[in-house]
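Table S2 (text version). Query chain:
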Amino acid sequence: MIILTSIAIQVSASILALKLINLTGKSYSWFLISGALLLMSVRRIIPLHAFMKYNVPVNLPNEFIGLLLSILMLLGIWGIKAIFLERKHAEEMIKSMLTEKEMILKEVHHRLKNNMNTLISLLNLQSGTLSDQAAIQALEEAGARVRSMMLLYDQLNKSDSFLEASVRMHLSAVIDGIVASFAVEGNIRIEKQLEDFLLDTRRLQILGIIINELLTNSVKYAFRGRARGVLTISLFLEGNKVVLRVQDDGIGIPESIDFGHSTGLGLQLVQALAAQLDGSIRLERDTGTAVILEFAKQTEALV
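Corresponding structure-token output:
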């Protein structure tokens, strides 16, 4: 009876070990354990067969110890199963919480986008009540800055990730929006040379505002008195460094104006935003005007 009980327990433990393959995925280990338990049950069959056919005495203490070991093995595997079931339940809970978090983030970004759209409408309405051209221009520029941020939220709503986004997709949309808002004439050619890579949304938003400022200044001032011109926006990776270059072949910026000596809000804002990226920014005046921004793609911490 002891031997039969041992055999039944060992076979049960072997079957339970095989069932754990689907739960844990460790097929090789559980196959070995299951095989070992089956061999143990075969070993029990040998003395059982000798006793039943040849009446060979059974070593009861040895078989009793074997029964206890079989029980311990079954209990151990059962306990492992409980641990993995609990772990699987915890993983499912985490996945459910992440899904809920993503839905909440989508809703937040959607509402932010709607609020920004409302803000742009309010700025447009306010500018329509003014007669001072400087005030109207200031409100229009504020609206353009908000619009460049809104584009990012619009793309995040369509994306699988809220942490990073495609540089080419986002900045290309920003550039197209600026060009459309200024109704750029056909004699000014806009060239986009944007390398595609992922960047965290915080710095991508800052880049969008910087490009909005630089492109707006170029469209408004670089081609005064010119029949045609070319405006090039290039962005590429140079090792771990992101390099943005906004260049025009226009009339050039006065020597008295640079990032250290400017009373205009645009250049001051660009300089402040470059500092937020821990980057460097400079002007070049070889052919027209070029603004070059450089910053590290990977940073230790983002705040």
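Notes on Table S2: The longest strand covers residues 229-238. Strands lie at 164-166, 188-194, 198-200, 229-238, 241-248, 280-284, 289-296.
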